[in-house]
């Protein structure tokens, strides 16, 4: 089942054992299908070959195996069939857990397509961000189920942040290990991050106002905030990578908040901008 912005489930809905069972059954059904989605595979291989992140055929094959296993390819096809996605183009960014592609919506506009790699073992290190979240009472026992849950979590966090008036990439749809969202920047590139930009006091003020609004309005702590997950595009600033974000009720929420604030105080101080230390900001935010 694909989930769009208009038909999204309640943010407080639990990830139940039935959800996990349904995901497993869907995977088994997919594996019994005989028709390989060859067209999509060939298209993606072409874009990967032309992309800046892949230089050799051997590297390309490895990446394709890690990101586009059979279930993921079928998930892309499902999003296309449901008109949540028009087409998938070149790679925009690559990480240990996920790769972001430039896609095209059915209206012809660019969209960002974030695909979590089902072959990675990195998500076992992320369980602490899920355990203790009342929205997801039952954590799946298999790694694929955990990745699907993480995808659902990021989508819901983006919705909560957007509803609270925080500028994030607009969440459009998700399915299995894939999120479709607003594209920030001009394809084939992306917007620069704070780390790649000149920053000033307006960026400083926006950052700490955003942390407070996220806490008070969305009842969330980002939990992985740094200069690498805030875009700066002209005068606009956009927070992204919301998968780690936790509710205030999470047992480690205060610890994560302190780390977020400390990271941003450190970054701006390195850039010559300092107004308050971490403890002073924490007192203000609380």
Query: How would you write the strand order of the largest sheet?
Result: 1-5-6-4-3-2
Corresponding CATH architecture of the largest domain: 2-Layer Sandwich
Rg calc: 19 Å
Count of individual domains: 2
Largest sheet: 6 strands, antiparallel
Approximately how much helix is present in the residues? 40-55%
CATH superfamily of the largest domain: Phosphorylase Kinase, domain 1
Distance between the termini: 39 Å
> Which residues sit in consecutive blocks of at least 5 with pLDDT less than 50?
7-22, 52-56
Mean of all residue-level pLDDT scores: 84
CATH topology of the largest domain: Phosphorylase Kinase, domain 1
Overall form: globular
Please give the count of helices.
8
Q: What is the strand tally?
A: 10
User: Class of the largest domain in CATH?
Assistant: Alpha Beta
**Could you tell me the strand content as a percent range?**
15-25%
H and E order:
EHHHHEEEHEEHEEEEHH
Structure classification: alpha+beta
Give your account of this protein's structure.
With 286 residues, the chain is α+β, with helices and mostly antiparallel strands. The chain folds into 2 domains: 3-182, Phosphorylase Kinase, domain 1 (2-Layer Sandwich); 194-285, Transferase(Phosphotransferase), domain 1. It has 8 helices and 10 strands. It has helices at residues 17-32, 38-50, 57-67, 70-81, 143-163, 201-216, 253-270, 278-285; strands at 3-4, 87-94, 98-104, 110-116, 171-175, 178-182, 220-221, 230-233, 236-239, 246-247. Helix 2 (38-50) crosses helix 3 (57-67). It is globular. The chain starts with a strand and ends with a helix. Mean pLDDT is 84; it is low at 7-22 and 52-56.
